[in-house]
Amino acid sequence: MRRKLIAGNWKMNGSLAANAALLNGIKADLGQPACAVAVCVPAPYFAQCKAALAGTSVAWGGQDLSVHESGAYTGEVSGAMLRDFECTYVVVGHSERRTYHGESNELVAQKTGSAIKAGLTPIVCVGESLAEREAGQTEAVVGAQIDTVLAALDVDDVARIVVAYEPVWAIGTGKTATPEMAQDVHAMLRAKLASRNAAAAESVQILYGGSMKPDNARELLAMPDIDGGLIGGASLKAADFLAIIKAA
Ligand code: 13P
Question: Of 56, 164, 168, 246, which cross-links 230 as Cys (Cβ 3.0–4.6 Å)?
Fold first, then answer.
């Protein structure tokens, strides 16, 4: 049985004061969650998360990392820097980075490798745009995204990634893939994982992301290949994030 993972992606939101309120709210009512829980936060807040979350069942992580280990790369943050603050996870290849920062499948594959090398668990994001879905290209687009990552990974490292299927048209729009639509893509992703490493495919968590909320989480998380959620907007409200954790 794969343990479910509910990960918040705060994106570029937060402040010391707002984060303190959010993290206190989560900790106050978390109890003993049945699933794994994480928050992926802007880099300036790693220290705050470490101080607030060490010793709790909530892990923390980043939203991107450099492919370089150190050096003259102004503005970049390395995997080792994330590890310095005891980050467990790092989001890699989010559609917002692919769209606004021109990240290619190849760069995302490189970042996945850099994260593993640094001792982080990459949450590798894949997903099609609305135009691609309507053109019947979902499997081709998402398949190429995951294939590029898998081809660059050592076979043994396949087990060290988390995959997140985030249809771009569902992110921040209030539109969610139906559980069946998401399940179809998740099953395809698991088959791709299995073709590289059959044993690893059974253990890798494949998350769904895109307008997952308290009122739709349960039916999405009930699908056989949906192993959790990558939550944007709803992760910024303690009550909503906790409700999704309870649904898992
Ligand atoms: P929303 O939950 O706000 O749609 O964002 C999803 C997402 O992009 C998580 O990475």
Answer: 164
Give me the sign of the Cα torsion angle 22, 215, 175, 33: positive
CA 160, 56, 34: angle at the middle one, nearest 5? 65
Predicted TM-score (pTM) of the model is 0.98
- DSSP designation for 225: T
Q: Assess contact for 143 and 129: CB atoms under 8 A.
A: no
**Amino acid, res. 68:** H
Residue pair 125/166 in contact by the 8 Å Cβ criterion: yes
CA of 209 to the centre of ligand 1 (A): 6
**Structural domain spans, the chain:** 5-247
For the chain, what is the mean pLDDT?
Answer: 97
For residue 231, pLDDT over 80 is answered with yes
Whole-number Å distance between alpha carbons of 82 and 47: 10
Distance 99 CA to ligand 1 centre (A): 14
Please give the positions annotated as active site: 94, 166
Q: Is the CB of 61 under 6 A from ligand 1?
A: no
Choosing from 231, 235, 240 the residue with most ligand 1 atoms within 8 A of its CB, the one to mutate for a pocket test is 231
Assess contact for 92 and 124: CB atoms under 8 A.
yes
pLDDT band at 176 (very low <50, low <70, confident <90, very high): confident
Rounded CA gap, 1 and 100, in Å?
Answer: 37
Looking at CATH, the fold of the domain delimited by 5-247 is given as TIM Barrel (3.20.20)
The angle at the Cα of 20, spanning 17 to 22, to the nearest 5 degrees, equals: 110
